[in-house]
Specification:
Mean pLDDT of chain B: 85
Number of domains of chain B: 2
Keywords (chain A): Cell membrane, Membrane, Transmembrane, Transmembrane helix, Transport
Strand order of the largest sheet of chain A: 2-3-7-6-5
Strand order of the largest sheet of chain B: 1-2
Largest sheet of chain A: 5 strands, antiparallel
Distance between the termini of chain A: 26 Å
CATH architecture of the largest domain in chain A: Orthogonal Bundle
Number of domains of chain A: 2
Mean pLDDT of chain A: 82
Oligomer: heterodimer
CATH topology of the largest domain in chain A: MetI-like fold
GO biological process, one term (chain A): transmembrane transport
Subcellular location (chain A): Cell membrane
Membrane topology (chain A): Multi-pass membrane protein
Family (chain A): Belongs to the binding-protein-dependent transport system permease family.
Helix content of chain A: 55-70%
Structural class of chain A: alpha+beta
Helix content of chain B: over 70%
Strand content of chain A: 5-15%
CATH class of the largest domain in chain A: Mainly Alpha
Low-confidence stretches of chain A: 1-6
CATH superfamily of the largest domain in chain B: MetI-like
Largest interface: A-B, 119 and 120 residues
Largest sheet of chain B: 2 strands, antiparallel
Number of strands of chain A: 8
């Protein structure tokens, strides 16, 4: 089939180009957030993330001069720098918002009262006057400067250590982990036994049960929220981790049973029947033969369930509650979008903390994910 | 107790209880109730093997019944009662009340729009991506990157796209890429998420972005399964690549396209996180699942909330029936 395109070089180029465009479209949004998470708040709000890789010339907000005054002969002098940390090159400056680029670096400018101000291209300034500055309001300086590309890990430090007040992303990360691991492990075993029974044991009503599982596969979990919350309250679980684990287990079971049963049905009949002839019980056949052979399907489901529980918002909101110390990452992100919608450095970084784990799982286990998708979509 | 410790304990206790249950119940059956020895050995073995499937099935069936099947009926009942009157039966009053709510009709309208646009666009993009990536050397890498959003949560995706749609007033530098391109082309900066009715489409873009990878993976496998002879015959007959694609390949994978379409439809019907995170249903972007969440957990009106949930169930029902019928046909 490949040679259809191969015969027409022009067409091959079109294909390559279209895929490049497609991939770019799909990658750019994520890339934008990733790049933003490594920029300072100031950089994010002043220029688009796509310009983060080039040196930028921009106007900075006004800086009020400050410093200790020194007496040099008859003149009083204040010296200092406008850009304490960064490797910035000044291209123009001014003292009024109406003409922020009035002067060149190094130019000496006369202000009122005999004051003189010089700002050089490194941002070093020298303010001098014949009388003391004591009690005077020092002038503001507007700068236009070029800054080199600069990236920082500071955002991640802030967000994870919790020094950004109210962000609490580190705690939310632990909460999410606490929710998703048991919610992934528990359903697997329960489902595996049921799947074995549905695949390899003869009993009346088997086909009906398989159909029921397929039906439950698509029941929206929205319908389960209120009745189950009531149930949890009645039996004393209330809102908490136990409730979330149980809910995720219940909601994950149909897919687990469906995936595993489909896989187990395809296992070679000979092996299982030979084992039975040799006197193995069903329990032994299951534990010693079927379970190890089903590893790919188990892995597929585990990835699904992990991604689903890690990324879930609704179940966690309803069954874990909205207390601040119990929020999972997704719920925390929704809160941040409301309260800190403009603070992209916090939002972007928090989002990436929450995305990082599923992305790692995705790239490490993609093979099993694809296999599971192919087996799991109801045909 | 620290939640992490609790989690580890839960795993240990949960798994231990599972294994313990299955082992002990099988032992009990084989050794005590129907032992495979003595005078009635044949009858005992037969009876034990009649009961055993149910031992294997019981925990799963119990959980499924309690966590999925029963709640459907319970929600149906809730939708017919009024919480303020102590759960008294009120017939269809909640549904009547809901039908008076303009927000409900807005949600229905938007949901229908989502139902048309998202599965169609995701399937189309997925088919395009599958067909294109299958014939180039670096196709697998491209696939991986298009597939990647599948791993990202709806909320994470909302943050990602909110940056894309970010708005700054005229005169300031745009930091959202959409407005940057728009102003670069000479337009005025727009607040994309508040401009009804187009804002719904900007929300749909997020879900299309996520679901295209899924469609691509499934359709790509189906495309590879097409017998090569049919394609070769078409080439010999002088068909153009476009003709081959639309006349030969697409008809052969029609059933897979239907599967992809219905699976994405199910996701769309339950869509909640994206709307909650990006607009919370403001500016005429409400959808059913978010409407339901609003009623249940913000207004605490369980009756109307349950009624909205039943509407979602009603919309899912045709797909449910169709799936069950198909599986019954296959297993027969």
């Amino acid at each position: 089939m490949d040679n259809i395109a191969g015969r027409k070089p022009a067409l091959t180029w079109v294909v390559h180009l279209s895929v490049v465009v497609l991939v770019a479209l799909w990658l750019l949004p994520t890339l934008g957030l990733l790049v933003s998470s490594f920029r300072t708040a100031d950089q994010i709000s002043n220029s688009g993330w796509w310009s983060a890789f080039s040196a930028q010339e921009r106007q900075a907000p006004a800086i009020r001069l400050e410093g200790e005054e020194q007496q040099q002969g008859a003149t009083y002098v204040i010296e200092g720098t406008l850009f304490p940390a960064t490797d910035t090159t000044l291209t123009a400056w001014g003292t009024s918002s109406r003409a922020p680029q009035a002067y060149e670096p190094g130019q000496s400018v006369d202000l009122d009262d005999g004051w003189q101000l010089v700002v050089d291209d490194r941002g070093l300034f020298r303010l001098s006057a014949p009388q003391s500055f004591e009690g005077e309001r020092l002038p503001r300086v507007f700068t236009t400067a070029t800054t080199p590309p600069e990236f920082t890990l500071q955002n991640y430090g802030n967000v994870l250590s919790g020094s950004t007040s109210g962000a609490g992303v580190g705690q939310a990360f632990l909460n999410t982990l606490t929710v998703s691991i048991p919610a992934t492990v528990i359903p697997i075993l329960v489902a595996a036994f049921a799947a074995y029974a549905l695949a390899w044991m003869e009993f009346p009503g088997r086909a009906l049960l398989v159909a029921a599982v397929v039906g439950l596969l698509v029941v929206p979990l929205q319908l389960a929220l209120i009745p189950l919350l009531q149930l949890h309250n009645d039996i004393g679980i209330g809102k908490g981790y136990l409730g979330v684990w149980l809910a995720h287990t219940g909601f994950g079971l149909p897919l687990a049973i469906y995936l595993l049963r489909n896989y187990m049905v395809g296992l070679p009949k000979d092996i299982i029947e030979n084992a039975r002839v040799d006197g193995a019980t069903d329990f032994q056949v299951f534990v010693k033969i079927v379970l190890p052979l089903s590893f790919p399907a188990l892995a597929s489901f585990a990835i699904f369930q992990f991604l689903w529980t890690w990324n879930d918002l609704l179940v966690a909101l309803v069954f874990l509650g909205t207390d601040d110390d119990r929020l999972v990452l997704t719920a925390r992100l929704v809160n941040l979008m409301g309260s800190r919608g403009g603070q992209w450095e916090i939002l972007a970084t928090s989002a990436f903390v929450s995305i990082a784990v599923p992305l790692m799982v995705f790239f490490a286990m993609q093979k099993y994910l694809v296999r599971g998708l192919l087996a799991g979509s109801v045909k | 107790m620290h939640p992490a410790v609790q989690a580890v304990l839960t795993i240990v206790i949960g798994l231990g209880a599972c294994i313990g249950y299955f082992w002990a119940s099988n032992q009990l059956l084989d050794r005590v109730i129907f032992p495979a020895r003595g005078a009635n050995i044949a009858r005992n073995i037969r009876r034990a093997s009649m009961i055993r499937p149910w031992l294997f099935l019981f925990p799963a069936m119990f959980a499924l019944g309690l966590y999925l099947a029963w709640p459907v009926l319970a929600t149906l009942w809730l939708s017919l009662t009024d919480r303020d009157q102590g759960g008294a039966f009120v017939g269809l009053a909640n549904y009547a009340q809901m039908s008076q709510d303009p927000k409900f009709w807005e949600a229905i309208r938007n949901n229908l729009l989502w139902l048309v646009v998202v599965p169609a666009a995701s399937t189309a993009f997925g088919l395009l991506a599958a067909q294109l990536t299958d014939r180039i050397g670096w196709g697998n890498i491209a696939k991986s990157l298009i597939f990647m959003p599948m791993a990202i949560s709806f909320v994470g995706a909302s943050v990602i796209w909110k940056l894309v749609y970010d708005f700054r007033p005229v005169g300031q530098e745009q930091i959202g890429i959409l407005n940057a391109i728009w102003t670069g082309l000479g337009g005025e900066p727009q607040t994309w998420l508040t401009m009804a009715p187009w804002n719904s489409f900007f929300l749909m873009a997020v879900l299309i972005w996520i679901q295209t990878g899924f469609a691509m993976v499934i359709l790509s496998a189906a495309l590879r399964g097409i017998p090569e002879e049919t394609v070769e015959a078409a080439i010999v007959d002088g068909a153009s690549p476009l003709q081959i694609f639309f006349r030969i390949k697409v008809p052969q994978i029609r059933s897979t396209i239907v599967v992809v379409w219905t699976t994405i439809t199910l996701v769309v019907l339950k869509i909640f996180d994206i709307v909650l995170a990006m607009t919370n249903g403001q500016w005429e972007t409400q959808v059913l699942a978010n409407y339901m969440y609003d009623k249940m957990f913000r207004a605490f009106d369980w009756g109307v909330g349950s009624a909205a949930a039943m509407v979602i169930m009603l919309l899912v029902l045709p797909i449910l029936v169709w799936n069950v019928v198909n599986v019954r046909r296959e297993t027969r």
